[in-house]
Every structure is written in structure tokens, then in C-alpha cells.
Amino acid sequence: MEPAQVAIIGSGLIGRSWAMVFAAGGFKVKLYDIAQQQLMSALENIRQQMKEMEKLGVLKGALSAEQQLALISVCTDLKAAVEGATFIQECTPENLELKKKIFSQLDLIVDDNVILSSSTSCLLPSKLFTGLKHVKQCIVSHPVNPPYFVPLVEIVPHPETDASTTERTYALMKKIGQSPVKLNREIEGFVLNRLQYAVISEAWRLVGEGVISPTDLDLVMSDGLGMRYAFIGPLETMHLNAEGVSNYCERYAEGMRLVLNTFGPVPEFSGETAQKVNQALSEKIPVVPKVLDARRKWRDECLTGLAKLKTQMKSD
Fold first, then answer.
1. Which residue range is the domain that position 18 belongs to?
2. Distance between CA atoms of residues 95 and 19, nearest Å
3. N- to C-terminal Cα distance for the chain?
4. Positive or negative CA dihedral for 281, 282, 283, 286?
């Protein structure tokens, strides 16, 4: 059987990563961008990443790197890129007008069966898709950067999205090895960023008030909470840290409320605290492209190793 086909709109970091995820799942991938040179650069980057991961034994999927690469083709014509696709993942820059323009163009050329999906990390579906003829087929599939190494995908419907679109998207994400979660309705920041911003907000206050240094604050997460959260979430943590959630609430609700009531207003993320945090992080990781790239590479290698460990632990 001919493998199913998907189209990726935009060949930047997220688009390339999505292309790799779908190819690993055995899908034919058409990667679209407006500039041929950008596409050639993207293909070469994908090739290098896949070859490196194959060498390290962490390549996703049952196919070899060459077999996966053979599934990916590039295209500078939007209509040709989406022809035959059952799923279209938009990965253009985080600009509302640009994304609306892309979806307006797609709305004119797709049929009634294809799913139109956006990688947006913060733009609400109601702002992206309202007024489109195929709005029932539109959805947000927000990945975590980089989606090849971090499998979570937030599936966020437009108020008019058909339930079957949500279910088909969820099933597709499961099929390609991602970890989809369904939001029942749209909300600013979705869920991942709301949780992330809550942590950043309190981290900022603690550093700003002189309670802890920026480097020690990061250590609290990386060698503390993060160790648990790599495998279980905050609600299961509550469940296991007592005799179930009800028991946890009986024991700790009063103390939690006491602490939470001391939280201040949302920080401005500027001024003296910004200088303090920037200085500490710049001393640890100088803001030089070569140094930052090396640290990002190290981060991705750690994520690869952690993903491999989690897969092993699930299969044991």
C-alpha cells in the first residue's frame, strides 16, 4: 500500500522536526516553503540529524535513515504541496496575520476531508480559523520544541471544530509516536505554557526578592521537581506523596493555601531582576552563538537520552 501523505507548511526548526516525526512514522511528507534554497538547507539539516541519530542508535521508527529521507520531498508550490495530503501541519512564524493568510489560501484549495492543523504556541484557534469555509476541519496541534525529542502535543479545537477532527488528529499523533493531550476548549496559553509561565513567574519573584540565586533556582527544578516531573505530573505526585489525593488535601491543603496567599502580582520581567538573571545565566552560558548552539546540542542529547530511557522503562 502507498503510505499516507502529509504536508508541512514551513521548513524552519519546527517544520523540519515535524517532517522527521512523520517520516519516522512511515508517512510520505511534502515539505513546503517559498524559497527553494531554504528547502535545500532544511533537507540537508534533516539528513545530518537522521544520520547522527542512526549512528547513536536513537533514530525513531522502524525504517532506516535513508528510507525515512526517501519519504520526504520538497515543494515551493502550495497547491502541489497539499495535493493528496490527509493532514496539513502549518509551521510558519508566530505571526497572526501571516498564519491567517496561509489558512485562507489553504481554505480555497483543500477538500472536505483533509485536516488543517497549526503548530501555534499561543494564538487561539478562534483568532486563526474563524470565517474559514473548512473551519470544522481546523485544529491546533501545538508541539513542544523540539517535537522530535519531546513528544507532547496539545490538541486545541476551534469552537466550531468537528469532534471527528479532534479524534482523527489525536489518533494520528498516537500513531506517529507523539503524546497527544486534548483540551476541551481554547484558553490563552493553552495548558503547557500556562503551567510554564506559573513556574517562571514564581521563580522570577524568588530571585527578585533575594531568596535564592538564579543558578540555584534552576537547580531546584533540574535536580528537584524536574526529576519527578520527567515521569509523573503534579497531580500524580500529590497522589503518591500521601495515601491518595484526598488524603494529600486533608494533610496539606491548609499549608498550600497559606503559601499560595503569599504569592505576589505578575512580575514585569524587566529592571533589576532581569539584569540579575541575565548576568547569572550569561556567566554560566555566554551569549555567543557558538556557545549557545553547543548548549542547545547538549540539551537535545540529554532529551534524546531521557526519551530513550522512558521508552525502555515503559517496555520493561
1. 5-182
2. 21
3. 33
4. positive
C-alpha 103/C-alpha 188 separation (Å) is: 20
Helix, strand or coil for residue 213?
A: coil
Length of the chain: 316
Number of domains in the chain: 2
Asked whether the CA dihedral 122, 123, 126, 129 is positive or negative, the reply is negative
CATH code (residue 11): 3.40.50.720
If residue 6 lies in a helix (H) or strand (E), which one and from where to where?
strand 5-9
Contact in structure between 118 and 10 (CB atoms under 8 Å) = no
Phi, psi of 141 (to 5 degrees): -120, 90
pLDDT (tens digit per residue) in 150-203: 999 999 999 999 999 999 999 999 999 999 999 999 999 999 999 999 999 999
Kindly list the distances between the CA atom of residue 198 and the CA atoms of 16, 178, 189, 202, 266, in Å, as whole numbers in the listed order: 30, 25, 11, 6, 9
pLDDT per position as a tens digit, 5-45: 999 999 999 999 999 999 999 999 999 999 999 999 999 99
12 and 161 both lie in a single domain: yes
The structure's pTM equals 0.93
Both 164 and 200 in one domain: the answer is no
CATH number at residue 271: 1.10.1040.10
